[in-house]
Fold this sequence. Notes:
Elements: E1 3-9, E2 15-20, E3 23-31, E4 36-41, E5 44-51, E6 57-62, E7 68-75, E8 80-85, E9 88-94, E10 101-106, E11 111-117, E12 120-125, H1 130-167
Antiparallel strand pairs: 1-2, 1-12, 2-3, 3-4, 4-5, 5-6, 6-7, 7-8, 8-9, 9-10, 10-11, 11-12
Amino acid sequence: MNTELSWEKGTFSSxxxxxxxxxxxxxxxRDSLSQSANGEIKGKVYCFKSSGFIKKNTIVYDGxxxxxxxxxxxxxxxxxxxxxxxxxxxxxxxxxxxxxSWQLIGTEGExxxxxxxxxxxxxxxxxxxxxxxxxxxxxxxxYKKSQRDVFVFMMMMACLIIVFTILF
Length: 168
C-alpha cells in the first residue's frame, strides 16, 4: 500500500507534525533534555529511548504497553543506521551531501523516501507501517542534532582558543 505524507517542523522546534491530504495524522516530538522521543501516527503511539555514547542505539517501544518493538543502531561515521524490527532489517541512508533526502530500505521490499526543504518535507512509502514511517524521521533528526552538537562544540573550542590567545 502506497502512503504519501507531508510534515512540518518549526525552526527551533523539536516536534514534527505529520499530515495526510492536509489533515493532521501524527507527530514526532523529541525531548530536548533527554535522549528520548514520542510519536503517534494512525492512532499508534511509540516511545523512542536512545542510549550509548560511542555506539549509539535507540529502542522503540509501544507507547501503550511499553513492549520493545525495534532497535535502531547508528553508524555515526557514515551517517547510516540499521533498523531491526522482528526479523526484518531496514537500512537508512542519506541520498545527498546536504542531507535533504534520505531513504529507509527494507529486505522485504519496503521503500520509504523522505525529502525536505527548510522546515517542510514529504514522505513517499510503499508501506503504511507507522513504526517505519516515524523511525525514518527520528534517524534523520538524530543526525541533524549530532551535527548541531559538533558545531556548538567546535565554536566553543574556537572561543576558548581566542580567549587563551588574548590572555597569554
